[in-house]
Design goal:
With 158 residues, the protein is mainly alpha-helical. The chain is 46% helix and 8% strand.
Length: 158
């Protein structure tokens, strides 16, 4: 599916006026145009719309481990594209969820969380309390068997 069509024509008029952003999920491969093979997701830095695909994450029905891997991959891409919808470009200063990736291996090595600088940008734009933010993330991590992430989020929340 051509991402430029989705990001420029299909999604912007469908974003509700009171929505911060609109993120679409598709099971088909995404393609941004000539010179590209595929992308895991793509978002507009200005229109607050984005899309991500589950096409290359594996089969979550194979085992509990496969389900966890697919879930983690989906969360990483959804989080990354949401960062773009808040105007954050790729991060190169830290190991960060806003790093770009060009393969599953590269994406799997990256963290689910944002670095301190990118996190601060989200907190500022949402007027969020970092301690409450991390407490919510830790609760989410525990509920969805994201043990390593939950430990980090608990430590960050104080």
């Amino acid at each position: 599916m051509l991402t430029t069509y989705l990001l420029e024509d299909l999604l912007p008029p469908r974003r509700p006026a009171d929505a911060v952003a609109l993120l679409a999920l598709t099971p088909v491969d995404l393609w941004p145009g000539e010179g590209w093979n595929y992308v895991f997701g793509q978002a507009s830095l200005t229109e607050r719309v984005g899309v991500w695909s589950s096409a290359r994450y594996g089969d979550p029905t194979q085992s509990d481990e496969a389900y966890h891997l697919c879930l983690t991959r989906m969360l990483k891409v959804a989080t990354h594209e949401t960062g773009h919808m808040f105007g954050i470009e790729h991060c190169t200063a830290y190991e960060c969820g806003m790093n770009g990736s060009n393969s599953l291996t590269e994406a799997d090595r990256g963290p689910l969380s944002f670095c301190p600088e990118c996190s601060a940008k989200i907190w500022w734009s949402c007027a969020a309390d970092p301690a409450k933010w991390y407490a919510s993330l830790a609760e989410f991590g525990e509920k969805h068997d994201l043990k390593d992430e939950a430990v980090v989020w608990k430590k960050c929340g104080g």
